[in-house]
Every structure is written in C-alpha cells, then in structure tokens.
Specification:
Number of helices: 1
Strand content: 25-35%
Radius of gyration: 16 Å
Distance between the termini: 28 Å
Order of helices and strands: EEEHEE
Number of domains: 1
C-alpha cells in the first residue's frame, strides 16, 4: 500500500485522555483509519532522519526484536537497526 498526501483526509497527533504517550491517527479519504503508537512514529522519524542527513546512506532497515536486556522503562519489543555490510551475505 502506498499512501500519498492526497490520500489523507486528516492526521491527528495527540496524547489521549488517560494516556502518557502520543498516538497518531491517519484517516484516509476512503474512511480507513491507521493508528500508530508513539514508538512506531519515533522509529519512522529516526529512520527518515538517518537517510536524509547521511551523506551516502540510501537505506536503513529496522527489524523487530524482543530484548531481554534494555533500558528501564523501555518495552521488550523494539525495532533495532540491522547493520548491512557489503561483504556479508
């Protein structure tokens, strides 16, 4: 699915009542609603900035992993950068 700007009717970023974290809802013109948790948007932004600000990088891959050791307050499931090397296959 490719979502273009003209496919979006509305984008809502808010901290819902009773919650601590941001939620972003994208409502498409066809009525489809996509709701993203804060961590998902943060990972998307992180990947976007990595590509846009790096002088040579053209791609970044974040893969979902369950981390038993993590910083306090962080969820067990994280999107982690996958390192790609030219000689690795």
């Amino acid at each position: 699915m490719i979502i273009r700007n003209e496919d979006i009717k509305e984008l809502i970023a808010e901290i819902p009542e009773g919650h601590k974290h941001l939620r972003t809802t994208i409502i498409l013109k066809d009525g489809t609603e996509l709701v993203f948790h804060e961590a998902t948007i943060a990972n998307l932004v992180r990947a976007y900035i990595n590509i846009k600000t790096h002088p040579a990088m053209k791609k970044t891959v974040l893969k979902g992993k369950s981390l038993s050791e993590r910083k306090e307050g962080y969820a067990e499931w994280q999107l982690v950068e996958e390192t790609e090397r030219k000689n690795d296959k």
